[in-house]
Every structure is written in structure tokens, then in C-alpha cells.
Design brief:
By secondary structure, the protein is an alpha/beta fold. It has a single domain, classed as P-loop containing nucleotide triphosphate hydrolases (Rossmann fold, 3-Layer(aba) Sandwich). The protein has 4 helices and 8 strands. It is globular. It binds adenosine-5'-diphosphate and magnesium ion.
Length: about 160
């Protein structure tokens, strides 16, 4: 029997945070599993906490630049350092204002997504659909119905892997 190669979504983790700082900390903890080349697709409405979480990821990689939502610039690039001391680039993309296929190619989105030496963080990933590689982390930010400072952050990983035959 040959094993089947397929796309599989592994365990879903859900973290509940009670403040901006807790979301930053959740991002910092999550970042410990990341490697150059990884893609992280971030979903959630305006103000849901995507950029705060990215700030935490950037903290983990010792980024010294101020991390802010690249809503007007579309894409920011930061220089980071991995735990082994090697450099790593972080591309922080916000697709909120992107509306057409032409705009995706103008910003060089697919080249950016395929950069092997960078970690790619994409806010408003729902705008990109299949332009984001299938092998990725998916992180969704949900507001809480009763408390304006609570966020529910769901993390899963999708990737090509060998499934049991
Ligand atoms: N638990 C929380 N986690 C993250 N942000 C929170 C939380 N509670 C309140 N906030 C506020 O929500 C906003 C989140 O903003 P931001 O991360 O820029 O959102 P997004 O990038 O998803 O549009 C900030 O103003 C932050 O202070
Ligand atoms: Mg943002």
C-alpha cells in the first residue's frame, strides 16, 4: 500500500486573550514554531487584533522597526533574527485595499509569497484566496459578544503531508 499525499488540517488551537498585551504575547509564543519561508494567513475584521499579533511575532524575531498596519503601504518589510542568530526577513502585507488581480501583480504578491528566505504575514487573507500557498498557518481573530477586550484566536496549519494509507 502506498501512502497518499494530501492536504491536511492539523489540530486547531484556540487562545482567548483579554487585552492587547496578551495578544502580543500570544503572537510571540506562536512565533517560536516559525521558520524562514513560512506563510501565515490572518483573518478577522478591522480591529480584531491581527496587527497586534504580528507585533508579537516581530518581537520574537527581534525586529527593531515600529510595526504598524501596512494599510496604506500595502507591504512592510522588517529585518529580524532567528533564535540561532541567523537573519530572517519578515514581509507584513495588508490586503484591505487590494481589490483586483492587477493590483496583486503590481505589488508582486506571488513573488513575495514564494520568497524562501522570508516569513510572510498576510492580513485580510480572505482577499487573496488561492494566491496564498496552500502550505500555511491560518489564524482567525474573532471578537467576543460580551467583552470588547476579549479576542478568540484560532490557529491551524495546512500543509502537504503524507497521510496514512
Ligand atoms: N484582546 C485584545 N487583543 C488585541 N487587541 C485588542 C484586544 N482588546 C482590545 N484590543 C484593541 O483592538 C485593536 C486591535 O487593533 P489591530 O491589531 O490593529 O487590529 P487589526 O489589525 O485586526 O485591524 C487595538 O486598538 C487594541 O488596543
Ligand atoms: Mg491591521
Amino acid at each position: 500500500m502506498f501512502p497518499t499525499l494530501g492536504y491536511n488540517s492539523l489540530d486547531l488551537e484556540v487562545h482567548t486573550t483579554h487585552s492587547e498585551d496578551e495578544t502580543i504575547l500570544a503572537g510571540r509564543k506562536f512565533a517560536a514554531r516559525l521558520h524562514a519561508g513560512d506563510v501565515i494567513a490572518l483573518y478577522g475584521t478591522l480591529g480584531a487584533g491581527k496587527t497586534e499579533f504580528v507585533k508579537g511575532i516581530c518581537e520574537y524575531f527581534h525586529v527593531e522597526d515600529v510595526v504598524s498596519s501596512p494599510t496604506f503601504t500595502i507591504m512592510n518589510q522588517y529585518d529580524g533574527m532567528q533564535s540561532n542568530g541567523d537573519d530572517v526577513k519578515l514581509y507584513h502585507v495588508d490586503l484591505y485595499r487590494i481589490n483586483s488581480k492587477r493590483e496583486f501583480s503590481e505589488i508582486g504578491f506571488s513573488e513575495c509569497m514564494n520568497a524562501p528566505d522570508a516569513i510572510k504575514l498576510v492580513e485580510w487573507a480572505e482577499k487573496a484566496n488561492d494566491e496564498i500557498p496552500a502550505n500555511r498557518y491560518t489564524i482567525s481573530f474573532d471578537l467576543d459578544n460580551s467583552d470588547e477586550n476579549i479576542r478568540h484566536i484560532s490557529i491551524s496549519h495546512q500543509g502537504e503531508q503524507v497521510l496514512a494509507a
